[in-house]
Structure formats: C-alpha cells, structure tokens
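Entry 14. Ran structure prediction on the chain below.
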Amino acid sequence: MAVLYVYGPGGTGKSTLLHRFADEARAAGRRILRVNARELEPSASAFEARSSGVLELPAAVLIVDNFEHCQALEPWLAYEFLPRLPVGALVVLASRNEPCTHWRGDLGWSAALHVARLSDLHDTEARELLRTMRVRPSLHDALIEITHGHPLALRLAAEVAQGGGETVTWEANGSVLRQLVECLVGDAPSPSHQHALEVCAHGLTTTESLLRRTLGDEAPTLFAWLRRQPYVECGQHGLAPHELVREILDADLRWRDPAGYQQMHERMSQHLLDEASKATGPEVLPAVQAYTYLHRYNGFVSRFLNWDIDSGIYENYYRPSDRMDVLRLIESAEGPRSARIAASWLDTQPQAFRVYRLADSVTPIAVMAWLRLTPDLSEAVLRDPITAAAWEHVRSRRPMRDREHFAVGRFLVASDTYQRPSASMDLMIHRCLAEFLHSERLAWSFLALASDPFWTDFMAYLDQRVLSGEVAVGARNFTLYAHDWRVVTRERWMEVGASIELLGPGAKPEPYAHDATGVMTVLSRAEFDKAVLDALSAWHRRDGLAASPLTRTRMVADRGHDEPAAALRDLLTEAVAALRADPRAEKYHRALDVRFLRGAPTREAAAEQLGMSVSTYQRHLKRGIQRVLDHLWDRELRGWDSERHVA
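Output, structure tokens:
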C-alpha cells in the first residue's frame, strides 16, 4: 500500500492532476474510488462509509480531493484506516494544506508516504500552457509577469488575451476576483480571520504586533492561523502571502469596501511608521521598507522601488578589507576622479560608508556613503565638488546652529544597474530614508545622483528639491537634491507622506508647515533669544505674539495648533511654569511670573510685590530668563526624540 499526498494553494492544478491520475490508473486496469471531501461530514464514520470499498479490492485506487475539509482525520487515517488497506492498494490525497508532521516523521510511513507540493509553473511550463491555449508568443512575457505563473490565473489571463490586441492590460473585475479568491484562498473561518488575511495582503510582511495594532486581542490566534495557510510563507521579518494571493485579496477589498480599505491602511500606516521610527540596528532597513511598501498602492512609487526583500543582498558596515573593492566599484561606474575622492573620504569618514553583499559572498556588489559634515570640516568638504556645492548652498541660506550638521548621500553605486531600480538601489534609497528619520541635529540633507531625469519625479515626491546647476566630477555630471529639515520638519514630512500613500503624487499637499506665511523660519541663537524676550514682553498682546518670528519656528509647528500665536503663548507659559519644578529655580519663576505674566509696570513695582530689593529681583529675573531661553532653544533644535539613534 502506498499513499501519495499532493498539496498546494487553490488553482495550482490539484484536481486536474487527480483526474489525470485516475485516467492513468483506469488505463492500467485498476478500480477507481473517488471521494470529494467537500461533500463529506468531517467524521471518521462518514469517510469510511464513502470509501470502504477500497478495503475489499486489492488493486483499488482511492482518490480523495479537497482533503482540507476533513484534515482533522489525518491521525485516524494514518493509524487506523489506511493500515487496513490491502497490500496493493493506492491512495491519493489532495489538500491545500501540507500533511501534519506526526505521520510524515513516522518511520513506519517513511517508505509508504510520498509528498508532492504543487506551486506556480516554471517559465517553460507557463509558456507551454500559453502555447496550448494559442496565445501569441509576443504576449507570453506580459501574461507570466501579471500572473506570477499561477496556473488558474494564467488560464484566465490567457482567455482575455485570446480576444485582445498585442498589448495585454489584464485587470480582473469583481466576478473574476471572487472566482480567484475562492480558488486560491477559500472561505475564512470568521470575519476576524478575513480581516487578518486582508492585513497580510496589504503589508509587506505581517507580524503579531501589526495584527494586534489593527485587530486587537485576537492577534496571537489569527497569526497562528495565517502561518498555517498554504499560500502564506514565513520569513525573517514576518509572514508574506503568495504574490498573486496578495494582489487579489488587496484588489478585492479595495473594490468591495473602499472605506474599510482606507481605515485598515491608515491603522497599518501609523503602526509601521512608529516601528520605523523606533527601530535600531539591523531592524532599521526592514522597518523602513515595511512602511514605504504601503506607498506602492498609489501606482507611482513602484516605478522606482522593488521591495525585493528575498534578493539575497544585505547591507553591511564598511571594513578596511573592502577598500579596493569599493574603490573599484566607484571607479568603474563614475571614473577615476570619483574614486580618488572616495578614497579621501574613506580615510576621514570610513564610518559613513555602507556596503552591500550577496548572502553567499563577502565581496561588495554595491556601496554608498552618508557623509555627516560640519563647518569645521571645511577643508575636506571643499576638496569634493559635490560636498563643496552642498556647503555653498547651506552658506547662502540661514547659517547652521550649534551642534547642527548637514549630510550628503554620496557614491550610490550598484555594480549591476548603477543608479537604476534594483535590489541594491532599493537598499541604498531606504538607507537614505532611514537617515532622514533618525539623524539628530540634521539641518540639511543632500542626495547626489548622476544627472538623469529618471529620478526627478521621485525626488520631488520625497520633497527633495533639485538645486540649479549640475556638478561635474571628472567626466560625469551630478544633480544635487536638497531638503532643509528646519523648514520642513520630519514630522511634517511624514504627515505629507502619509497623505499620499494611497492616492499618489497628485494628492500631495504643500509640505510647508501651516502658518501665516507658509514657510518656517530658521533663526540664529542671537535672533532666537531676542524674539523670545520680545514675545515675553508681548505675552498679554495677541497682535504682538502673532507678529513674532517664533510663530514660524519648529517648536511652534510641533504643537500642531491651528493658531500659532496661541501655541507660542502656551509655550512661553509652560517654559516659565517649568521653573517651579526645581526648588532651586522657584525664585526665578516668581520673578518672571510677576514681570511678564502678571505684567508689573516697573522693576521697582515687581521687586515690591516680591518683597525683595531691586538688585535681587534683577538677578533672579536675569537667571530665570536665561533658563527659559535655554529650554526653548533646546526645544527648537531637538524637534525629535533625542534618544533615537541611527543604526
């Protein structure tokens, strides 16, 4: 007696294979007994009643389709029913689920049980199917790409192509989607399971924490159920469905429940953005990739990013042993002048370089640098035409403030495609995005890309503004894309990004903060201190506060208040009140409270109210003002959780 167990997602040809197996067995003179488990009550007695004939016929073949409907009978089959079959009997089981491990690993079954998994057709198999359906060879590549080689989807697409022209644009309508969902996925046990499937289809990978954020306390049960499904694979960063299943489920939900689709997307987006912002070390890039993946649904970003997380390429820190390979990559792509400049940066900022390797090799296949630069590095900056141009742009605008820096994404080189979409370029772009999210005290960022209109729209989508004039390095020209993070903060940048994930660039609002002029102000420390003193003096006058340049600063924009003047008044009040928390500064609080918040007309009147001499009052007032200035300046500079670090 032998058992053949065939499994795989719906639509992969299991039933067709069973029909062929029955024909072959019949031609060989075997008796056939067919059972459709979908029509059975999932009990041992019902199964035996339908298939008992095989117990009496030595050469019989028992064929059971849709076995997933009575999958719970596996232990009974393995240890009670099947051992009773005659020696020459054959059994064929077809299920969407793989066999359970307790009888696959049983030594008694090791010789009698044969397991075969059905999945997508290979390229040659897919082309053979299309040839048999008389589809023009010129359409084969497009159909295989659309369907990922899934047999059922390939047949449906081929039927469309048979009646179409040379160009195939196969967009499944509602009835086709329902048919595919039925065949590939089947019915979910409950609405919660259906929602879990939809989340899994919408995201790049699904974790239990993502399900918990979107679906609540049922997350552990739903996650365990998802990982058992034949069309879901377990990866390093979570669960991912078969690509065709992903596309069908996502398109089906978008088609039948647009409002529910939008709500799910927003919940997932907020969770993944939080995860990307908190990630550290090797988790940074996967977290950023998971967040940006939500942008693929607007049909624009997928022209530039692939999200090929299974490419076998990974990011690594630069090691001294990589030097010759890195310089060889850069020289091959950008010429000897770029390689000499890169060598100089490797000497001064080796930590700025990231290399990208294949999993089975230590040799770098791609490289990039994220240079962190400050005015005191001016000599090194000016030696490189790219960083010199970035520095000149920074100097022509508002000066950088204490502890701020500017950064330049430089030497983005992939050995296979240079700076066109690829798995390596994906990782480099996501590294730049991670730096945008995590870099502390970042005033300006610049990306240097070889002059090519291909990236222009994508850089505009990311609010990276092209600088006029190309920069020549050797025989190659580069375009610089810039972003002033003091004008459009990370918070505002991410807010704008979230608004266009589904709708695309056409829905993009103006990225500048909401305020009177539409553009934020960058103040030097001296200008900032003067503006705070003026605002404290105008604390009782709404028009005076509204005219303050502080209403257009980061610290006010971060409040998210519709009225900047009111937000500034609250900030000043909180800064003065904060002095009371320190017993040593309580006297400073009293001096500021009397002078600015209560509005004492003169210093003598303020000193009299506090019961102290004028000189003592002035000393307390001066120290209190300095504490408030330092506190607010720190708020203006920080603008982000200072405990976050770049991986």
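Residues 555 and 634 are 9 Å apart (CA to CA). Will compare against last week's run tomorrow.
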